[in-house]
UniProtKB/TrEMBL annotation, chains A, B, C:
<feature type="transmembrane region" description="Helical">
    <location>
        <begin position="311"/>
        <end position="331"/>
    </location>
</feature>
<dbReference type="InterPro" id="IPR004798">
    <property type="entry name" value="CAX-like"/>
</dbReference>
<dbReference type="GO" id="GO:0016020">
    <property type="term" value="C:membrane"/>
</dbReference>
<feature type="transmembrane region" description="Helical">
    <location>
        <begin position="281"/>
        <end position="305"/>
    </location>
</feature>
<dbReference type="InterPro" id="IPR004837">
    <property type="entry name" value="NaCa_Exmemb"/>
</dbReference>
<comment type="similarity">
    <text>Belongs to the Ca(2+):cation antiporter (CaCA) (TC 2.A.19) family.</text>
</comment>
<feature type="transmembrane region" description="Helical">
    <location>
        <begin position="12"/>
        <end position="30"/>
    </location>
</feature>
<feature type="transmembrane region" description="Helical">
    <location>
        <begin position="247"/>
        <end position="269"/>
    </location>
</feature>
<keyword id="KW-0812">Transmembrane</keyword>
<keyword id="KW-0050">Antiport</keyword>
<feature type="domain" description="Sodium/calcium exchanger membrane region">
    <location>
        <begin position="213"/>
        <end position="357"/>
    </location>
</feature>
<dbReference type="GO" id="GO:0015369">
    <property type="term" value="F:calcium:proton antiporter activity"/>
</dbReference>
<feature type="transmembrane region" description="Helical">
    <location>
        <begin position="67"/>
        <end position="88"/>
    </location>
</feature>
<keyword id="KW-0406">Ion transport</keyword>
<feature type="transmembrane region" description="Helical">
    <location>
        <begin position="100"/>
        <end position="123"/>
    </location>
</feature>
<dbReference type="GO" id="GO:0006874">
    <property type="term" value="P:intracellular calcium ion homeostasis"/>
</dbReference>
<dbReference type="GO" id="GO:0012505">
    <property type="term" value="C:endomembrane system"/>
</dbReference>
Amino acid sequence: MSSLLREIRHTPLLWLLIFVPAVLIAARIVPAAHTLLFVLAVVAIVPLAALLSHATEAISEKTGDAVGGLLNATLGNLTELIIAVTALHAGEYMLVKASIAGAIVTNSLFMLGASFLLGGLRYHVQEYNRAGGRMHSALLLMATIALLAPAAVSELDLARGEVMTQNFSLALAILLIVAYGLSLLFSLKTHKELFASEDRGQAEEAKWPINLAIGTLFVVTVLVALVSEIFVESVQHAAATLGMSPAFVGFIIVALVGAAAEMAVAFSAARKNRLDMSVSIALGSASQIALFVAPVLVLLSYVVGPKPMDLQFWPGAVTMVMIATVTATFVTNSGRSAWFIGALLLFIYAVFAMTLYMVPPGSHGSV
Amino acid sequence: MSSLLREIRHTPLLWLLIFVPAVLIAARIVPAAHTLLFVLAVVAIVPLAALLSHATEAISEKTGDAVGGLLNATLGNLTELIIAVTALHAGEYMLVKASIAGAIVTNSLFMLGASFLLGGLRYHVQEYNRAGGRMHSALLLMATIALLAPAAVSELDLARGEVMTQNFSLALAILLIVAYGLSLLFSLKTHKELFASEDRGQAEEAKWPINLAIGTLFVVTVLVALVSEIFVESVQHAAATLGMSPAFVGFIIVALVGAAAEMAVAFSAARKNRLDMSVSIALGSASQIALFVAPVLVLLSYVVGPKPMDLQFWPGAVTMVMIATVTATFVTNSGRSAWFIGALLLFIYAVFAMTLYMVPPGSHGSV
Amino acid sequence: MSSLLREIRHTPLLWLLIFVPAVLIAARIVPAAHTLLFVLAVVAIVPLAALLSHATEAISEKTGDAVGGLLNATLGNLTELIIAVTALHAGEYMLVKASIAGAIVTNSLFMLGASFLLGGLRYHVQEYNRAGGRMHSALLLMATIALLAPAAVSELDLARGEVMTQNFSLALAILLIVAYGLSLLFSLKTHKELFASEDRGQAEEAKWPINLAIGTLFVVTVLVALVSEIFVESVQHAAATLGMSPAFVGFIIVALVGAAAEMAVAFSAARKNRLDMSVSIALGSASQIALFVAPVLVLLSYVVGPKPMDLQFWPGAVTMVMIATVTATFVTNSGRSAWFIGALLLFIYAVFAMTLYMVPPGSHGSV
């Protein structure tokens, strides 16, 4: 327990934990102050995500290579998953889909771009393991093609019946999870040397005892779920007040909040000239969203949602995700980086955010 | 003749030749058993395609480098061409177009992916001639851009008159054939060293006498034409019975059947760690479809079809072909392969097949 | 002055200057002979563009590296800019947009392709600085993504009000100019060594005195403006007579005319086996159009046009620009070239031109 407290004292990000009780109390006292609750919830999720990711890593370190890698891979996007499940439960399908697409775009443009920019401001040119970057971007590219191909290929007649769309999304979800399993087999077992960056640098940090890590994992998961509920309840009203569409909130806000913890790690690695790690976190997390989080949400929607969710994204989302992953693939292909590459990635992200803010997918987008 | 018999005895694939008389007889006896005829015809075409490709290679070996290469390149997709011409004659334009698009996708995703997977299951990492792979994928990429650009760029008003679409497709077909001629000049004459993989391994096999080869070529061409006619006649009814759309049949079934012989060669090369050859067969065959088979069918449609055929593909086909060639380009760019790359290519192919099966291009697709 | 005359005597291209007075006089005498005026204006602009580019380079050489690079970069597409401003003033928005998109496509397909072909007809295989080509193509790719993303992502409801589209385009224009400033900072200051090709070969040529250069710049700018006005006035009628749509004129004719001077330099460099320079002129000019000319035209439209111009391109233009830049990126990635690569680029350009000529964006395209 003392190591948890020490961790909190030394990590300014974790001071934000104070917002967790704040938002829970505020939700009781002023349940109608949607904008306040929205802002508090967003701020409170950030440190919780950091704790979650720390606990996951501590557990995976104890359990040895194979199981640990599996755990890390499966729980790496736990925050996004919890928020999305809460939104699913509330029937906010547009928010869920926007957060899936947005998480892929945010990871492959914003996280990667900011890593390149922050690293590039300190180092003139940064080189990194080209083979590893290529494997990750190949996986990401194929994952998004598989996720989006049906939406890109077919213009589903809604008149043709939701049942077929449903069945189709279910079959696709199962295919995606199988591919995810194969990708884990490939990256953790048969060809793990291709993905290896020498050390992930956890060595320097104080290790958590396993009990503390498991305890933290459970408690924080519950807290994230509680805060997510407030977030999802308030988001509709708050967004309207702040002039944001549900698509913008899901695509930009939820994606940034959910990935905050990983970003902190990726940015710090970039500042230490270890772009291998930044690239692998950014692209690895993006492909996990496509291959694991998205299909799991489809399967869960049969249990927790008011009706099953399909995987039909609105056309603009398909285009943005494809542009983002192709750009990330192209950029990581050379194994070299300079500040301007990062600036350009951020710039494309800004264009997307601006487009979503000013021209949200309206009533004519298939939700 | 005895070498032909020896060949048949030693090649289990050729035992399927028994289905050739079977389907011809069945078509006489039970002309209304469409599903049976469809299945028999599909199975009968496979060994015929293998014989065709073997005869073509035997002839091209005898005639020396330049003429041989030309022959091999021009007759390499003879089976697809014969089936398509039969369908053209019957006015089945959707089937023809689907089989053109499907052949490109099948070659660049399924044939390439299965080669990578089969090779990767035996060898940890396979390396191959990067320059050759790049030349082939560059040619393929440009060929498909040229083939699809008009469909991607223009949303032709059908109201604007079929005549203009017709003229446009005719002009495009001529341009494509000119480009094909230039590509042969480049790959067989001015820069043939870039495409060379040391030996094509025919040395080991028993050589056919030239007369036998030419005789086989003619006889088998006639047999393929006869079986194709039964196939095209039965396909509509059989597809309806089996729940498949004409788009699915053309895109998946015809493409797989037509390429079966080349696949056997490509897979066996991959198992012998000669991916150069697999890549060159898969991508070379795909670009030949785009640059040669497609425009030739447009020109032939003026002679054999009830009305001229245009080159307007339905939007989903355009997207799938573009995704397939970009993916193949990206994957062959590195000159290395492992089993998972093959699995991912097959996986994207499965997603496409599933999409076509469950969401065929309906009445709203421009046929 | 004598050096200007000597220059003209030794450069056959400049003999076309005789068409400048010819078109100005003809416009007075036969103002209704639109087709004649159109042809004369097109021919007259070519040598003026050559003089403009020569004067710009002479000035930039005198003013030292940083300022000179800036000048060269900003005035490099001055001809295109003047023509576009004249068209803007006349309210010909379709022509302006088509010339922006067309300039990008013409530079990255036609100029690059013809350089590769002309160089390749003399040299078997040409190698060039791969890093430089990659930097240029990365910049171009991101520039066009930023320019086109909104058009690709959003299908703006026109019913939703032009005001929003206007504001959106204005915001995007400002973002693009900021990115352009950063790209200059990167390529001229912080990382200029990545873009360096040893010498740009101006050394051999006779240097112009600075006064002559500045004088030429101003006089020629005025002449281009005068000729452009005649061009824009006559183009509508002439195009109708010659069966060309405004989209075709802007996309192909204006783009070829505006880039004629740069093409002369790029082609001559390719013939001297200095593809570095050809690639950098072609791709550098294309990204400048996207990052500088296009947004400047949006800003200027508030001053000189009858109403503000937005950045919504018609869907076909978006597709062609994306295909052109992706192809150029792919092709320059390897740092090697042969004649067939150039032929294929020209071939794709021809397919686009044919498409635009035969199937212009009709009334259903958003203009």
